[in-house]
Design goal:
The complex is a heterodimer of chains A (122) and B (248). With 122 residues, chain A is mainly beta. Chain A has helices at 105-108, 112-117; strands at residues 7-10, 16-24, 38-46, 57-64, 69-70, 76-79, 83-87, 101-102, 120-121. In chain A, a hairpin with a 5-residue loop joins strand 1 and strand 2. In chain B, helix 3 runs parallel beside helix 5 (74-101). Chain B starts with a helix and ends in a 5-residue tail after the last helix. The chains are: A mainly beta (122), B alpha+beta (248). Strand 6 (76-79) of chain A pairs antiparallel with strand 4 of chain B, so a sheet runs across the interface. Chain B: One of its GO terms (cellular component) is ribonucleoprotein complex.
C-alpha cells in the first residue's frame, strides 16, 4: 500500500538509492499502489556520479511491499521493505542489474525484462 | 388452564423454533386467557378479575422463567420472554376492561382478542438464533472439515508443524513452470482452522526478508520436511521481524 510521501528503496543500479512516491498512476483518485503498479517518484538519495540525480522526477514500478500480496492458491507473500525499480516511459528498467527477489506477478504485467534480470523470482 | 398453557409451551419446544415463534402459540394462549376472564366476569366480581389477572401474570412469569432454563439457548429466550409478557399484559388489561364493560357478550370479545394477538406480539430475533444453531451445533460444518482433512492426510504425509520448527517445503508452481521450488525457513505462526489451517514461514531471499503464508493442506505443497526444532516460548514469533538474523 504505497501512497504519496512513502519512501521506497531502489533495487537496481540505475543510480538512485531512495525514492519518495508522489503519485500513483492509474485512476484519478487512486489511493494506494501495490506490487506491479507504476508510480511517479522523486529521487531523495542518489549514488554520486550517475546519470540520475537527487530531486529528479522519474517513474518506478513497485516490486516489494510490506503489505501482503495474495495469490489465488491461498498463498500470501509479505516482504520486509518497500522497494521499486526505476523505469522509463515504456516500462524498461533503467539500470542493468536488479537486486533482491521479484514477485511472479510482474511477468503478467509485461515487465518481462525486470523478471528476467531478477536473481530470484518468488 | 395451567395444563393448557404448559402443554402448549412444551409443544412449541418439541416442534422447533419456527413453531415456537409462530402466532399459533400466541393465539392458543390468547384464546384461553379471555375465556378465563369471561368466566370470572360471569361470576360478577371485579376483585376476582384483577386477582385472576395477577395470578395469570404471575403464573406466566414463573412458567416462562422455568422454561427458559430448560431450553437449549437460554440467551435468546431470556431476552424474548420479557417483551412477550408486556404485550400479553397490555392485551390482557385491554381485554379485561372490555370484558368488564360488556359482560353479556364474552364470545365476541374472545374472537377480537384472538385476531389482535398475532398482530401485537412480534419476535425480532429469528436470524440470530438461526445463526446460533449453525455455529453452536457442531454437527454439519465440522464433520465435513474433519473428513476432508483425513482425506488429504491419507494422500500425503503431512508432519506436525509448530512455531519454531525449521522446515523445508517443496512447492509446485503451476504458472508455466513445472519445477518444484524449495522453500526453507522458520515457522513463525500457525493458524488452525480445519481444512484451512495455514502456517507462516519466514526466510531470507537475496538479502530481503520474506514471509510466506501457505495453507497446510494445499495440493501445491508436495513435500514438507522438518529440519530442526528451536525452543520458543511463544505461539506467534512476530518479534523475529525486528531481529533480522543474518542467516536464514
Amino acid at each position: 500500500m504505497i501512497q504519496p510521501q512513502t519512501h521506497l528503496n531502489v533495487t537496481n543500479n540505475s543510480g538512485a538509492r531512495e525514492l519518495m512516491c508522489i503519485r500513483v498512476i492509474g485512476a484519478s483518485n487512486r489511493r494506494y499502489a501495490h506490487i506491479g503498479d507504476v508510480i511517479v517518484a522523486v529521487i531523495k538519495e542518489a549514488v554520486p556520479n550517475t546519470p540520475l540525480e537527487r530531486s529528479e522526477v522519474i517513474r518506478a514500478v513497485i516490486v516489494r511491499t510490506c503489505k501482503e500480496l495474495k495469490r489465488d492458491n491461498g498463498m500470501i507473500i509479505r516482504y520486509d521493505d518497500n522497494a521499486a525499480v526505476v523505469i522509463d516511459q515504456e516500462g524498461n528498467p533503467k539500470g542493468t542489474r536488479i537486486f533482491g527477489a521479484i514477485a511472479r506477478e510482474l511477468r503478467q504485467l509485461n515487465f518481462t525484462k525486470i523478471v528476467s534480470l531478477a536473481p530470484e523470482v518468488l | 388452564m395451567q395444563s393448557f398453557i404448559s402443554g402448549s409451551i412444551r409443544l412449541g419446544q418439541r416442534q422447533g423454533f419456527s413453531r415456537w415463534r409462530s402466532a399459533h402459540f400466541k393465539s392458543s394462549t390468547g384464546a384461553y386467557l379471555p375465556s378465563q376472564i369471561s368466566t370470572n366476569v360471569a361470576h360478577g366480581a371485579n376483585n376476582s378479575i384483577k386477582s385472576s389477572q395477577n395470578h395469570i401474570l404471575q403464573f406466566l412469569g414463573t412458567r416462562f422463567g422455568s422454561q427458559t432454563k430448560e431450553l437449549m439457548f437460554p440467551g435468546s429466550y431470556g431476552g424474548c420472554s420479557v417483551p412477550e409478557l408486556s404485550p400479553l399484559a397490555t392485551m390482557m388489561s385491554s381485554s379485561s376492561s372490555r370484558c368488564m364493560t360488556t359482560a353479556a357478550s364474552p364470545t365476541t370479545d374472545s374472537s377480537e382478542s384472538v385476531t389482535d394477538v398475532p398482530a401485537r406480539i412480534k419476535f425480532k430475533r429469528l436470524d440470530k438464533t438461526a445463526r446460533n444453531i449453525m455455529k453452536e451445533s457442531p454437527l454439519f460444518p465440522f464433520i465435513l472439515d474433519k473428513e476432508a482433512v483425513e482425506e488429504v492426510k491419507e494422500q500425503r504425509e503431512i508432519p506436525d508443524i509448530k512455531p519454531g520448527y525449521i522446515v523445508q517445503l517443496k512447492v509446485e508452481v503451476p504458472e508455466n513452470k513445472r519445477r518444484l521450488s524449495t522453500i526453507k525457513g522458520i515457522v513463525i505462526a500457525r493458524r488452525n482452522a480445519g481444512l484451512n489451517t495455514t502456517f507462516r514461514i519466514r526466510r531470507m531471499v537475496a538479502g530481503v526478508g520474506v514471509e510466506s503464508l501457505f495453507p497446510l493442506y494445499s495440493p501445491n505443497i508436495k513435500e514438507i520436511k522438518v529440519l530442526d526444532k528451536k525452543k520458543v516460548r511463544r505461539a506467534k514469533l512476530y518479534y523475529l521481524r525486528n531481529k533480522m538474523n543474518a542467516l536464514r
